[in-house]
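ingest -> validate -> predict -> emit
validate: passed (alphabet ok, no gaps, 476 aa)
predict: started
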Amino acid sequence: MTTAKRTSAKKTAPKNRAAAISLARKAAYHVLLSVERGHSHSDDLLRGAAVNALSSPDRNLCTALVLGVLRWQIRLDHELQALLKHPNAKLEPEVRIALRLGAFQLLHLDRIPARAAIDESVELAKQAGHRFASGMVNAVLRKLARTHQARTGEPVPLADSPADLALALAHPAWMVERWVSNYGIEAARAICLHGQSQPALTIRIDDAVVAGELATEGIDLQPGELLAVAQTVVSGDIAASAAFHDGRFRLQDEGSQLIAELASANPSQSFQIRSILDCCAAPGGKTLILAERNPQARVLACESSVQRIEPLRHRLAPLGDTIECRLADATTLAEDSAFDLALADVPCSGTGTLGRNPEIRHRLRPEDLLRQATRQRDLLRAAIRAVRPGGRVVYSTCSLEPEENEQVVAAVLAETPNAHQVSLEASIESLAAEGILIASAAPRLCASLTAEGALRLLPGAFHTDGFFVALIERNA
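emit:
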């Protein structure tokens, strides 16, 4: 009877029971597949309903997998290609993503067992309809695991050429070659290393009571690098705090905050700011700082994107009638000579934000820089036209590329005889004197000014995203 029962159980058991795939890996796989197909951006998908439905540990793992694969994709593909039986074979997107996920875990996540990384990657390929290719995924990842184990403990070679540096730190060679040419090999290495790390989580907070509440909730903060109101989150789940849900502090990169602070600086104290134009306002963090630093001013916040205008209005609503949110392209505004101050924080390539937005490195092409520059010149011209004689314009990007930065400013000023560039040194010193900058920040920022007086924040030199900021004054 016992034997018969065991025989019967064998006959009725399913032959090809699917192996379990963790919710975190499955979610990461689908996010990466959408990014690969160009359907959406990782930051949008990681804030989407599917990821938010995960438990906190699974959500954290999913995010780490997605961003890690995107950061290291160039190097992962290089390592995997060498192990393929046919290195030039074209792989289906589902198979490529399964391989990358497994390879990233094997090479960069020591706490994940190799068996789990391999088996679940194989199952992802199977469930995507690539049962035959799943065998190849299994074989390649097992070879990679053996190769990686054999290399463990070997010193990492120092990459001294742009090509070697690009491959070692998984950046496009054309980008690294530009950075080496413009800033030198050591600065380029620092930029690449910054692009491979999780950016600092910085909050803007000037309330000691709120800071105390966060401490009681187990959130460890340390002072920012530049601004007195900036705090870096060392540990703890800041998004789960009561103060976050109540909107009593804001998440914002410290370099991003600095741009609005520089725009609001008034070194001579003779410049009256009664009206402000924010040309490209969404998502609104800089607009809020402009309004807070200039409570006497009316602010026009322009946004040309239909998708972004409503979230912008919602975010700025607490400030009431002092801010007008307008769905408009700033280049078409009828208000000429109407503002004291204009901020042109223009759309750009985003090469200063590769740690935060890693897939930019896979989508951006050299020719995109010139296309962006055309739009940037139009916006800067509009901003200069919008300010009154004696008014000021702050032009900024989160790009590291001269075509989008100093070349834009130079081209517009060459055709605009009624405007000139002003060094930001006095603005930096004014912010230091007011206690807005921490004591050690001013000398470092002044040392980062270009010959024309623009500020360049390079990732790695500062623990911020990369930014370029220029101050322009319309002649009185």
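Residues 56-81 form the longest helix (26 residues).
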